[in-house]
Amino acid sequence: MMKTQIYVFQAITVGIYLCLAVGLEFLYRDPLFIDSLTWEKEWQSSGSKTLESFFKVLTNFGTEPVLIPLLIICFLFFSLQKSYCFTSVLVYSIFFDNLFKILYGNPRPFWVDTTLWKSCDGGFGNPSGHSFTSSSVYLSFWHLSTDYSFFKDTYYGIIIRVILLILVIALIIGIMLTRIFLGMHSVNQILYGASLGVALYYIVFHAFSLHKWSAEDFFGLFKTAYYKIIFSLWFAALIITAIVVWKFMENDTSLWVDALNSICPDIKEFRKFNNGGLYGMFVLFGLIGCHYGIMFLLRLIGDSFFGLNDELNNLNGSFTFLYNLIRILIMLIFTLPLILVLVIPSTSPLVIIYIFKVALPYFLTMFGLYGPSILVSIKWNCAYNRVRKYSPKFDVEAPIDLSK
Question: Would you list the DSSP string of 171-231?
Fold first, then answer.
């Protein structure tokens, strides 16, 4: 009862915080955007080449080539439950960032003042995606990495946990500053993005605290028909919302389209304005694939793990170094659909790009990682020895039977 009251209180708290963050954003939007144009020009003119080079490297820590490896690390070394939470944070941060971008339809600084440095990006600027994603993802990674008794119950562990938090916050602030220095975002946009990112982190790891649920309750989300319907309706509602907003939100881009085309002549159509927003929102299919991959896994193993929910939940984090190498090879097989992202030409019709360059490869990849790749790992006897202790009759050639 006490835990339920705490969750309700935290849900109310984050609800109030979100209402304030979203409701008050319009008060500082225009003033800070106008001031940012002056500040960025002065900063760029006084900044050194070394600082520019450093910021161009640092800003990459808020991009997919860095964030996706974090997802793989979580998948390899954390429990299935924690890995699912991290994936949710990463995907939802990208989805809602792009949704808000279309809803606001605000420009980036270098669209308005073409004398600023040209860092080509065709999506709208508010909120800052780097600020949104880095604040939510890095706080989540810190939370999961230090979610152990050593970091909470020992003196030195608490000190290390606090130091790591300070470093994570410094990294997030550094990434936010790069977006201003490079002319990609204004001050109001990075502040708004960071406020939303912190809210998302708090919702997942404090308001819902799914990573703290028992393994039995966690898998219940994917086994129970009621939750299957709820999640299916939720994902369907988000996809419909994304398409409706993309189609019917008529943002006036006439003031910036010529500047963008002249500054970035090679930018593709699916990366511009509303099209770029929908392209980003379709990353949601990755989380859908992750969700249904777990459902697929639980359905195939049936009652084989009856009474062994904790063992199944911790399979991802319970492999030896050698078995992790084997699992990486298995993972590579199931990430092959990502090749579609590179194979599909960027000049293809938009519907082809959205389906075969985003939705399908993300869905198939995450479905494969959270479903078949775990199943194959178990069948190939890559499971930790404690699973074998519960099932001495386990045979890689025989059907899975890990029941007591």
Answer: HHHHHHHHHHHTTS--HHHHHHHHHHHHHHHHIIIIII-GGGS-HHHHHHHHHSHHHHHHH
Amino acid found at 215: A
Q: Are 181 and 59 in contact (CB under 8 A)?
A: no
Angle of helix 2-23 relative to helix 25-46, nearest 10 degrees?
70
The pLDDT value recorded for residue 396 is 39
Averaged pLDDT score across all residues of the chain: 88
| pTM tops 0.85, yes or no | yes
Top-confidence residue, 262 or 37: 37
Task: Quote the CA–CA distance of 229 and 237 in Å, as a whole number.
Answer: 12
Which residues, including other chains, have CB under 8 Å from residue 248's CB and lie 6 or more apart?
none
pLDDT tens by residue, 271-320: 999 999 999 999 999 999 999 999 999 988 877 776 778 878 887 665 56
Residues 6+ apart with CB under 8 A from 12: none
Domain boundaries, the chain: 2-213
Calculate the alpha carbon distances from 245 to 102, 201, 241, 248, 354 in Å: 7, 25, 6, 5, 15
Q: How far apart are CA 196 and CA 193, in angstroms?
A: 5
